[in-house]
Amino acid sequence: MTSAPDSATPTPGGQTLAAVLVPLFVPANGEQPHVVLTRRRADLRRHAGEISFPGGRKDREDPDLAATALREADEEIGLAPTAVELIGELPAISTFATGYEIHPFVGLIEPGQRWRLSPREVDAVLELPLAELGRSRTRTRLERRGITFETDAYVLDGQMIWGATFRIIENLSERLREGGGPEGRFSLKKRR
Length: 192
Hints:
Layout lengths: L15 E10 L8 E7 L10 E2 L2 E3 L7 H13 L7 E5 L3 E2 L5 E9 L13 E8 H6 L1 E8 L2 E10 L2 E4 H16 L14
Parallel strand pairs: 1-7
Antiparallel strand pairs: 1-2, 1-4, 2-3, 2-8, 5-7, 6-7, 9-10, 10-11
């Protein structure tokens, strides 16, 4: 996995290092793969009500960014690190407005998890089918901090996913279409 300096040490571009976990599961009945996302509380100062993956900035105590992603998933939704099989890493995503370099780590989990939400951060956990997300892709207008702009988004069951989370899902979907093969690619097949 990636080894990087702690969050107090910015990237060469001056961004803050962060990591997210992209939990995936295949329902017991063999349906399409699902991705697990969180909806942030509406009363938060930053990213209020937005949908994201569990994650956050790297702490000094985290040995690497994969550990950051696993720690944050445990803190935010009660997903124990031992319940996750890391199967790969997606390309880092930079956020323009907030100055983060986000490293997404993909992990397989068993279906039927019991979520324990952080009352300070998380309003809900969403388990969404990847194929349906892909079909819900659209272009939409948003207003943030008084600025109106157009952006790509997924809109599914009344939930809008955009920004860094949208780009991570796009990278994940592309990687899954490519399947196994050369280094840096992965599939949803369990390792033996």
